[in-house]
Give the backbone structure.
Amino acid sequence: MSSPQPQFPPLLPAAHPSSAAADRRDQPAGPHTLSRDAFWILFALSLAVIDRIRTVEELPWHAHVLAALSVVHAVMVDFYAADTWHGIHIRTISMSMLVVCMYLLARLVRLPAAFQVSPFRYIYTWIGTGFAAWLMWSELRPIYVAVGLGVFGLGLFEIGRWSG
């Protein structure tokens, strides 16, 4: 008589993000759902600030990697998150924090000399702007999307003119 085979959980989650969200529906939504994204981007920002205070050669590279990980995580997970916390979508909170941190990282993180004169300097602001535009597109009512994008563009124009 053969014994039954043990059932092991799958090594990888299902490919579709909605199935991962379906597995979490029994848990209450809250700030814990954005902890990984927030931790990575805030840690990258803190590394950039520490690098500005004390020049350590490895810290900017760690900040770049952590920022890239948080961007990839945001694209793969936060775009599809439908959880709410006190009536606010979790993706609104996490993506807004990501946009602000990307703009701060553009100012604070050091780049190697070869990348300072190239368009790589502006990748952080491009990503932040793209996330902000996507966030407005997905969260605002259709009639307010054009107004929101116009005000955002005007704000970016004024900040760019003011900063030089």
